[in-house]
From TrEMBL:
Domain of life: Bacteria
GO molecular function terms listed in the Swiss-Prot or TrEMBL record: isomerase activity
SUPFAM superfamilies referenced in this protein's UniProt entry, alphabetically: FucI/AraA C-terminal domain-like (SSF50443), FucI/AraA N-terminal and middle domains (SSF53743)
Occurrences of domain L-arabinose isomerase central (ranges): 173-313
InterPro entries linked to this entry: Ara_Isoase_C, AraA_central, AraA_N, AraA_N_sf, Fuc/Ara_isomerase_C, Fucose_isomerase_N/cen_sf, Lara_isomerase
Gene name as annotated: araA
Segments forming domain L-arabinose isomerase C-terminal: 318-460
Chain ranges of the L-arabinose isomerase N-terminal domain: 3-166
Official protein name in the record: L-arabinose isomerase
NCBIfam families documented for this protein: PRK02929.1
Length: 465
């Protein structure tokens, strides 16, 4: 259960009648928000806080509640900010400052000072906003009447990002092998990423996966093969190679589930005991929300998993991707993105075809993989880099497009996209920012989602659009 605490601020100055009205109004707002956001999180109303002690209590309660993914604060009346300091210093959950009123319109004919004293969020929220800024607390602000669709949409975005942050804090990732030899941009400080994002990234010998693969039964393989035939086009001549991938997928399922792992990496330089580089097996893991990074790229694997969680409930695809090569026709430049094997079938515009082709590197048998052309539409490509003293999120807005011509000899799934605002500006900005060749592409998320995640996690953010 994901919960967002709804905390309303006031003070004892106003007396029982006013505070009773504050409580009733805030309950009604919480109830309305709960109806609108029920698919993402439960909005849990908290009694009005009037002093430092009550604020400390509710902030401690939110911090220790494992189901609480964040808090929404609102000042119905004026609420002196010094009494918020100790509580806010104890709060470890993401915070949304909602700047709204219970009334949408002013009662021009009847408005008096009693109404003004009760409905002074314009006053109280400025006091609260100051103390958040003074304390340096990273938070999101949503301003507008709470029943307006635009306001609800912004609160919904916060809820999804907060859910992804809570997920991130408990994320476990496995590295089968280490980072690809001599490669810089995919490497990083795993200790610092655990401190900052909660990612527990640990090494596992490929032999552990080999042992699980060897234990897979023929009955399990036959069941998986039947599933493939229902979902994909497949030639019977490729059956034996596909069976190998089916074993890998079954083994990966068991390994990940048994260890509570939601992201992983592998590398073609460490495949001892495997006949093929995992292809279909990895593609299908990504389709079920498991993060993946090739060549030991743990940052991309973890980020893929977090973004997939953020996108839950939205239409679209999210997955690992790599900038591979360009069409540099002047004025019509395109990026051709793919990988050796591992592109999520979430991106498939057509029914995927299972194909078997030599890999060309790694010295293993030709692996089976899903081949397809990608979907069209607006998307983001996101990269996380380790700059030595900080992590940096780079987000490019892109447009996925159809292939301009057939590619009958390209034996991998692929996407094609246009960079924004144009090719030269977009790629120059990416290179100057130190962006890597591995990204997470999403048609479900927007740059606003990534920007909010960056802000709430205090991560440097660069947007290219």
């Amino acid at each position: 259960m994901n919960r967002l605490y709804f905390i309303t601020g006031s003070q004892d100055l106003y007396g029982k009648e006013t505070l009773d009205q504050v409580a009733e109004d805030s309950k009604n707002i919480a109830l309305y928000l709960n109806q609108c956001l029920s698919d993402t999180a439960e909005i849990v109303w908290q009694p009005t806080v009037r002093n430092s002690e009550e604020i400390v209590d509710v902030c401690q309660k939110a911090t220790v509640d494992k189901d609480c993914i964040g808090v929404i604060t609102w000042m119905h009346t004026f609420s002196p900010a010094k009494m918020w300091i100790k509580g806010l210093q104890l709060l470890t959950k993401p915070l949304l400052h909602l700047h709204t009123q219970y009334n949408e319109k002013l009662p021009y004919d009847t408005i008096d000072m009693d109404f003004m004293n009760l409905n002074q969020s314009a006053h109280g929220d400025r006091e609260f906003g100051f103390i958040l800024s003074r304390l340096g607390i990273k938070h999101e602000v949503v301003a507008g009447y709470y029943k307006h669709k635009s306001t609800i949409s912004e609160i919904q975005r916060f809820a999804q990002v907060a859910k992804a942050m809570a997920f991130s804090k408990n994320l476990k990732a496995a590295m089968f092998g280490n980072n690809m030899r001599e490669v810089a941009v995919t490497d990083g400080d795993r200790v610092e990423s655990q401190i900052k994002y909660g990612w527990e990234v640990n090494y596992y010998g490929i032999g552990e996966l080999v042992a699980l693969t060897d234990a897979v039964t023929e009955a399990e393989v036959a069941k998986k093969l039947h599933e493939y035939k229902l979902l994909y086009n497949m030639s019977e001549k490729d059956t034996e190679s596909v069976k190998v991938q089916a074993r890998y997928e079954i083994a990966l399922d068991k390994f990940l589930d048994n260890n509570g792992i939601v992201a992983f990496t592998d590398t073609f330089q460490d495949l001892y005991g495997l006949k093929q580089l995992p292809g279909i097996a990895v593609q299908r893991q990504m389709a079920r929300g498991i993060g993946f990074g090739a060549e030991g790229d743990y940052k991309t694997a973890c980020l893929t998993s977090v973004m997939h969680k953020m996108a839950e409930g939205r239409k679209g695809a999210t997955g690992f991707m790599e900038d591979y090569t360009y069409d540099l026709t002047e004025g019509q430049e395109l990026v051709l993105a793919a990988h050796m094997l591992e592109v999520s079938p979430e991106f498939a515009a057509t029914k995927p075809q299972i194909e078997v082709h030599p890999l060309g590197i790694g010295g293993k048998e030709p692996p089976a993989r899903l081949v397809f052309e990608g979907v069209k539409g607006d998307a983001v490509a996101v990269c996380m880099t380790d700059m030595g003293d900080r992590f940096r999120l780079i987000c490019a807005e892109i447009e996925l497009v159809s292939q301009t011509k057939p590619m009958p000899k390209l034996p991998v799934a692929r996407l094609m996209w246009k960079l924004k605002p144009d090719f030269k500006s977009g790629v120059k900005a990416w290179l100057e920012a130190g962006g890597g060749h591995h990204t997470v592409v999403s048609t479900a998320l927007t740059s606003e989602d990534i920007a909010m995640f960056a802000k709430l996690t205090d991560t440097e953010f660069i947007l290219i659009r």
